[in-house]
């Protein structure tokens, strides 16, 4: 279901609080789904993981309130390290940065709210995953986000099947809004999550969209909610299916080496990471994406 | 000893083959010194490590010869992972890149030769180390390089003593050429190996110099040799002194976390790494600097 049938004149400004509320609700639902998986994984031994919440405040440039967020991190028996973070921040971009942001050249004030998730799994048979969606408001407003999957053995039949299921959910979410979305956003994802220095894709993709302003802000918000719902329908199911498979020490070692590529991508190319680090974001929240254990043998 | 007393009219062009020969000789001497340490470390169990050499060729832009190099990598019982690489490459910079390089704006041809070393040690009591020196020739010519040390516990008395010994050797090398070198190159090192997103130094520094052209190319070459000799006098001695100390599991864990900062620096800020990756250098040689095992817990 989506809101396309009932176009409304709501502006991005009017959507700020509903969007923020959605991101926070989605955070809670995802954390609950992941904790339920931890409870299920009795085969794994040890205690089921639980999310630990860390709220943080962002000082505004002038010492005023600049918003903040809440990191939730779980180190579990299935989820080796997963961060599900929401933040809602506002202030003024630096002049340098404002020049690169739509609608911020003349008036540098911004407001941004979003959810961001990265999960690194103990099992080399369960793909890592990334999802984030956000609303940005300058003198313009737009939604952005995406979700993508990173298996340790992208060529394997199992990984291909998981990716097909993941893509199918995202495609259905896209198609219910605009038939051009999935092909465009899938290509964008493939181009974005690419390591030119290795000539390698980071994983098996998904969708990626930025600066989405179709002219109907409500529809764009509904699409962003649909992406969150698609993620929630797709990923936990993959985890539940794959987590019971046993794996070898060599497979785990391979996973740790593949994670090195993930680090290389995030630190060399990821715009969100570089933006956050270079503009004084919350370091712990930004670097939550880095895997718990990595090898460059 | 240095060549300052016998200034000569040799140009950087005339120094290309002597510099290349020096870097290759130094590579051999360093590898021999490190293998001797491996032989000494009978307390560690397992076989002493040995360097494995991998020569590589760099294709020139037009398919012609573009030079190449030799990586030497050892995975030992004291040296967990150490790369000692030499390369001598030539060709033409891209237009974008040439604009940033002294003497390359009008004529984009370049020649570069150097040695580059990074050692990550098994023991959290033995500091990691980095050293590199090089000669670059465009329509200008200059030497560049440096050496710096990264202990797991920079605040500890032991690490402070090691750093003092390391700095003393580098300072002596500097002072025999120019009393301004050490203070300038030490500061440059401190500014360079700094992680602004964490407000942290990478380690306990050393020296860093770039675009050194004093007007006497022979003296600059002699200084670059003196930096290599200082490294060879300083670092193996530190390793021999510290490698016998036992350490705890918690110290090793701390080392793995500190190595994450090393990765963050190299992938986010290191100009050599970014330059190499973005201009089609040898990926394996460039990323040899990344630690074998890392944690972001």
Helix content estimate of chain A = 40-55%
Question: Could you list the spans of chain A in which at least 5 consecutive residues all have pLDDT below 50?
Answer: 1-8
Identify the strand order in the major beta sheet of chain A: 1-2-3-4-5-6-9
Q: Which fold name is given in CATH as the topology of chain A?
A: oxygen-dependent coproporphyrinogen oxidase
Morphology of chain A: globular
Largest interface: pair, residues per side: A-B, 23 and 23 residues
Indicate the CATH class of chain A: Alpha Beta
Give the distance, in angstroms, between the N- and C-terminal Cα atoms of chain A.
Answer: 48 Å
Total number of helical segments of chain A?
Answer: 8
List the quaternary state of the chains: homodimer
Question: How many structural domains of chain A?
Answer: 1
Q: Find the CATH superfamily of chain A.
A: Coproporphyrinogen III oxidase, aerobic
Gross CATH architecture of chain A: 3-Layer(aba) Sandwich
Structural category of chain A: alpha+beta
Indicate the radius of gyration of chain A in whole angstroms: 19 Å
Strand content of chain A: 25-35%
What is the string of helix and strand elements of chain A?
HEEEHEEEHHEEEHHHHE
Number of strands of chain A: 10
User: Biggest β-sheet of chain A, characterized?
Assistant: 7 strands, antiparallel
Mean model confidence by pLDDT of chain A? 93
């Amino acid at each position: 279901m989506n809101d396309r049938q009932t176009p409304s004149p709501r502006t991005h400004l009017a959507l700020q609080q509903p969007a923020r509320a959605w991101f926070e609700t989605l955070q809670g639902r995802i954390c609950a789904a992941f904790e339920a998986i931890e409870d299920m994984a009795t085969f794994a031994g040890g205690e089921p993981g639980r999310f630990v919440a860390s709220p943080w405040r962002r000082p505004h440039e002038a010492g005023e309130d600049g918003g903040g967020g809440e990191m939730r991190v779980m180190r579990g028996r299935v989820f080796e390290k997963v961060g599900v973070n929401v933040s809602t921040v506002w202030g003024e971009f630096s002049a340098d940065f404002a020049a690169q942001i739509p609608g911020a050249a003349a008036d540098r004030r911004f407001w941004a709210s979003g959810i961001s998730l990265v999960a690194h799994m103990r099992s080399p048979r369960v793909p890592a995953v990334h999802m984030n969606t956000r609303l940005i408001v300058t003198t313009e407003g737009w939604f952005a986000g995406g979700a993508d999957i990173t298996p340790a053995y992208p060529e394997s039949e199992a990984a291909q099947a998981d990716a097909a299921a993941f893509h199918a959910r995202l495609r259905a979410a896209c198609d219910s809004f605009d038939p051009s979305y999935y092909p465009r956003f899938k290509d964008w994802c493939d181009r974005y999550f690419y390591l030119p220095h290795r000539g390698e894709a980071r994983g098996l993709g998904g969708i990626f969209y930025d600066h989405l302003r179709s002219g109907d802000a409500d529809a764009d918000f509904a699409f962003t909610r649909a992406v969150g719902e698609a993620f929630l329908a797709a990923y936990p199911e993959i985890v539940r299916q794959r987590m019971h498979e046993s794996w070898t020490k060599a497979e785990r070692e391979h996973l740790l080496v593949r994670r090195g590529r993930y680090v290389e991508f995030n630190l060399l190319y990821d715009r969100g990471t570089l933006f956050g680090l270079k503009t004084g974001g919350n370091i712990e929240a930004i670097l939550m994406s880095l895997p718990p254990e990595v090898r460059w043998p």
